């Protein structure tokens, strides 16, 4: 059975890469990847983080806070805690990327993640993401564990253009 699961995962990864659906860069330990960096920013350098934002994930299928505001080009350290009894994760991406990734997760819930725009946490554990937001606009985040996204476990980072002397 394990061999079939590994073969299925490998075939899925090849199909995603060949399809050109935006999952071309970065690879999760589960065999799929995506190009989140291009659309929502890039991994940040911890020493350049301008602030820390603490986020709690819990079994009410909510992130606290679920609405975060940052400035364009700001590097933020997110300290994420799973205060629930279920496994949860936080994944940064566009709404489209998150929905596509969620559909894959529903078919392969055993996948583990190892990309810089996401963290998966067991109950009672904490982790962090350091991220630089390089474009103004909305960056979504969600828990892609099966059922959690559908239950509303989502949030958004609103990235505002930095004020310049000309716009102040």
Automatic annotation (TrEMBL):
Residues 52-160 form the Blue (type 1) copper domain. The keyword tRNA-binding does not apply. Residues 1-24 form the signal peptide. InterPro entries: BlueCu_1, Cu-binding_ET, Cupredoxin. Its main location: periplasm. Coiled coil: none annotated. It is found in: Periplasm. Keywords: Copper, Metal-binding, Periplasm, Signal. Gene3D superfamilies: Cupredoxins - blue copper proteins (2.60.40.420). This is Cupredoxin family protein. It comes from Variovorax rhizosphaerae. The lineage of its organism: Bacteria, Pseudomonadati, Pseudomonadota, Betaproteobacteria, Burkholderiales.
């Amino acid at each position: 059975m394990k061999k079939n699961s590994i073969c299925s995962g490998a075939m899925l990864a090849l199909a995603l890469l060949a399809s050109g659906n935006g999952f071309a860069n970065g690879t999760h330990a589960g065999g799929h990847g995506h190009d989140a960096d291009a659309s929502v920013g890039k991994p940040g350098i911890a020493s350049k983080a301008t602030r820390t934002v603490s986020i709690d994930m819990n079994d009410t299928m909510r992130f606290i806070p679920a609405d975060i505001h940052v400035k364009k080009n700001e590097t933020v350290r997110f300290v994420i805690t799973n205060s629930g009894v279920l496994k949860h994760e936080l994944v940064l991406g566009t709404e489209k990327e998150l929905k596509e990734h969620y559909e894959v997760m529903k078919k392969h819930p055993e996948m583990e993640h190892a990309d810089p725009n996401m963290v998966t946490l067991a109950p009672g554990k904490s982790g962090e993401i350091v991220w630089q937001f390089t474009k103004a606009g909305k960056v979504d985040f969600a828990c892609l564990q099966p059922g959690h996204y559908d239950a509303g476990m989502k949030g958004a980072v609103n990235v505002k253009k930095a004020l310049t002397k000309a716009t102040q």
